[in-house]
Specification:
By secondary structure, this protein is mainly alpha-helical. The protein has a single domain, classed as Orthogonal Bundle (Hydantoin permease), CATH 1.10.4160.10. It is 73% helix and 0% strand. The protein has 21 helices and no strands. Helix 2 packs parallel to helix 12 and helix 6 packs antiparallel against helix 18.
Length: 468
Amino acid sequence: MSQFNIEEEIKEIVEGEFEREPVPKSSWKSWKSFLGMYAGEHAAGTEFMIGPLFLTAGVSAFDLIVGLLIGNLLAVLSWRFLTAEIAIKNRLTLYYHLEKICGKNLVTTYNLANGILFCFLAGAMITVSATAVGIPFDMEMPKLTDTMPNGATWVIIVIIIGAIISLIAARGYDTVSQAANWMSPIIVLAFLSCGIVALNQLGVKSVNDFWAIWGEGSAPFPGQIKFTFWHVVLWSWFCNAAMHIGMSDLSVFRFAKAPSSGWTTAAGMYVGHYMAWIAAALLYAVYLKTPEAQTLLNTGEAPPVAPGPLANNAIGIFGIIAVILAGWTTANPTIYRAGLAFQAIIPKISTFWVTIVAGSIATAAGIFPAFAMKLLGFVALYGFILAPVGAIIVFEHFYGKKVGIIPFYAEEKKITFNLSVFLAWGISFGIFYFISKQFDIFLSFVTLPAWISCGVLYLVFSKILQKS
């Protein structure tokens, strides 16, 4: 293919992403498009890691079952009544929306941080897929405490998977959505099958037997923290804080016909973050009863969490395929979001190429297992950093006129650095991060206070500084 033809194809691929303009009515999509994407993205690679990691944190049956029920409901409500409402009114990407408020220079820093964190999250999902691809090659699986790659086979497999995922994400929202629609039914069926098989392997015959798997909880594994009921509620609410209260999914819901499309996130929360997490935890519960796992526990070492072998043990080759696809359906939209963040920094470069860059960073991150093995802590940090910025959009949207501040202030006054935004985020982040570290408080407990603080301070500083 000639260089001219290649450039024409790339132009055709990225056409219609509307990175710096409202999405026109001709490109609006029905709720079905979002249903498949959210079901696929959230019944996906992270679920194979998070379910077992709850067990390593020593949760009890009540904490897990009821805590997840409440936390996921709060997440759905956040998407529906905050993210989708604002997205439909403005139909802008998060990055362009923030640029209008913050100014080009300030939002560039945010976009860079946002894009890199998205890449690291996608890298963790590439790690998940690699644990399945490596099974036929008798590859050594990463341990729960591993940070570095354990061999050349691991590195090669991660690079190949990352390249494929990056190319799919680079083809734009339509391709990402279609991929999720194709894969999500297979993945959901696999999770359900894994859960049923694991229940049989655990000898569960009644509700009491099922409840006894977690019982009253246990001490956390070496290197893990103890999760209580409130850990589960707040973590499951804020594990996607950057997407809902952090407003990242403005970039997704700007394509929706109506705010009611926000309810489709329930498919991700209750099929993925509920059924799939519990099914994955059951797989790990089966593994913990094996002589290999018991030997490791007796020596004070945490048994590895490798989704590929866990699923393979339950449903064989179908499990391996499901884990591979699950990693893809999470990494695809995550890399797509990261590409949009980078594209906002360098708008003259096509979305296709910045998404390829994002995919390359994600692939590099996937080589290091630490991002996947420390997923509970990493996701809490990621939400804590990014979510308060979304409060600036939310508080301006709902309270800006009442307070009397100028909306889209940076665009209106043609400034590149909105000091109100910087002070609001910096003070909120600094105070609550200090509280977390000083008093050893898990970050999910201070995410909401930091978010509210950032929104309120933004209104206060804007009122003062816009007058001056």
